[in-house]
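Escalation from tier 1.

The customer reports that the assembly of two entities below gives different structure tokens on two consecutive runs. Tier 1 could not reproduce it. I'm attaching the input and our single run for tier 2 to review.
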Amino acid sequence: MKRFRVVLLLALVAALGLSALAQAQVTLSYRFWDINQAPAMEAIARAFEEKNPGVKVEIEVIPWGQYWTNLETAATGRNLPDIFWLNAPNFELYAGNGMLLPIDDRLAKSDLISIDDYPAALAAIYNHRGKQYGIPKDMDTIGLWYNTELFDAAGIAYPDENWTWDDLVAAAKALTDEANQVWGIAAELNLQSGFGNTVHQAGGYIINEDRTKTGIAEPEGIAGLKFWTDLIHVHKVSPSMAQMTDTEPVSLFESGRVAMYFTGSWNAIRFANNEYTKDRVDVAVLPKGKERAVIIHGLSNVIAANTKHPEEAWKFVEFLGSREAMEIQAKTGTVIPAYMALQDSWVTSIPQFNLKAFMDQLDYAVPYPASVRAGHWQQLLVDCLIPAWSGEISIEDAARDAEAQIQEVLASEKR
Amino acid sequence: MSGLPMRGGPPKPFVDQEVRGKGVDDVSGINKKKLQDWFWAYLMIFPTLAGTIIFSIWPLLQSFYLSFTEWGAFGFYEWGGTVNFERMLGDSVLWQSLRNTLVFTVGSVPFGIALSIIVAVLLNTKIRGMSTYRTLYFLPVVTMPVAVAMVWRWLYNADFGLINHILRSVGITGPRWLTDPKYAMLSLIVVSVWSSIGYNMVIFLSGLQGISKQYYESADIDGANAFVKFFRITLPLLTPTIFFVTVTSLISSFQVFELIFTMIGINSPVIRHTQSIVFYFYRQAFVNMDKGYAAAISLVLFVVILGVTIVQFRLQKRWVHYE
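Tier 1 run:
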């Protein structure tokens, strides 16, 4: 019995000692959705641990399909990971409900990173009511992709940085060959890669900075939308809404049925790996409307407001935004690093494409339009625009419907 | 009840007394034993019962409560009274989705059942390769719904799809099956009927196996032909199975979701003409993040399904023959 007691005592001491040791070690959880980027994130975490003894980073990959439900559940249970990824449509939902830790003070004192290391419009996405919550991780912009073979066959010069909307319409008309079911352009109904850009190019806006008003039904907003519906119904140079629902525009572009297509830098890899497009397409900056504009988007690393280790969590986010971590990320080539000084490496990664076009537009890039309930009004906006894209109602009526419904959502955000 | 007439005396009080006397003894005896039985019985069903309570009954009560709340993000909500139900009255999209659901149900359930019965009767005969046919018809049931939807989307594709390709070869320009409001619902119903045949067929086969051969033998003696036998014997005796399949088919057809989600999609020009009430519920709960309103919608669906099912059980006396 006595011996048993001694053993018990020893075990107790050992347990206490171990737990004391564990307390000295801080463990941070880092959650994101992209398994393709896990090796890079793992490498960054290891590099961080080496520099910060006593801090451990645990990586949790939740697939995209479950990520937002998972995160919402975690936030509802006040059980968010210390650090995680957010995108623009979801950011303000979390920031606006007090789920995120503001980082302004720590960022101001940092000697590792500065907000000027990232494109201003990208950093602005993660600023909510004057407070910065996230450090950008990667970025994308939109370009005018075109099929060189179809351009050559029609004998038209390729798009360049001097192109305007009129040039695009003229080229689309020349490229359209109804008999062979080839269209000049795909007028896809898409906020980020489509009408969001042209509304800004027409001098308008989707959502104002205060998140109190939408500009979709103002003359400039309507002009930006009409650009697309005219391509379908007036100039007849695009497949119909029904056709583009049956077969995705990107597939039409990849099979040579569509000569021009607005889409993001994220598709560069896809087009480079596609047998047909890899040496038949190229990309240029978006054509100029009344002015120049392109929507910029990118992910951000954010910290949970109720993290137990705000200091260590910031250190990791700071490191994730630093040149060293961004270099590790850039090497994998899956995304464009948000760190501006490193973007050249991505530009040269696919030599046959003019990827520089995506970077040339940074000077006039505008943030991806969002607000607290962005997911809600973005769907309403698309719902309202569908009948106009199908030609059932005028674009003016559709825009006014959308305006009324979006205003209602924006009003509900203030409550 | 041992109500045996006893000779030579009034049996009733005696029996009553005995029963009562025995009963008292037995009640305490049985109770103890019964309690023990109950204990073990409940212990055995506890895992399932707990699962049902935690994952079905509790959420059911919760969503009932939630339908009276106004939902904010991350679990913040406030009591809203009947605000969600008032909003429903003016929500024309909701009523259209309810109407779409009814059209879908009326279009798919009767055809699905009729075709399954025909297939089951045909496969109930002794023909060569019967099990192969049964397997073929059952295949859609064990195939992933998303895979089924992908294949059908390809078949239906207006420009490159197989259906229109065949129509074109005989000189017909096929319609845009999934993006023309006139055809989209029909296309969905076809897929729904096709994928429900296999499961219903198996149920009907087992129902057919339960019909005694004697009826057919005596009908043969009376010189009845195959049609008479089908309508006078098979169909009436199959009614209990038909009733079961009708109830389950109606419920699952009222809850149709993934077919619309995978084949039409939220951004399709025909989504308004095809979205079901559960799809609209999904949109409110997970796109608009308005879980209070979504819960109210699910409550309405619950009441509709409950009502339809009660009516069916009431009506079954009129047409269901139990042997």
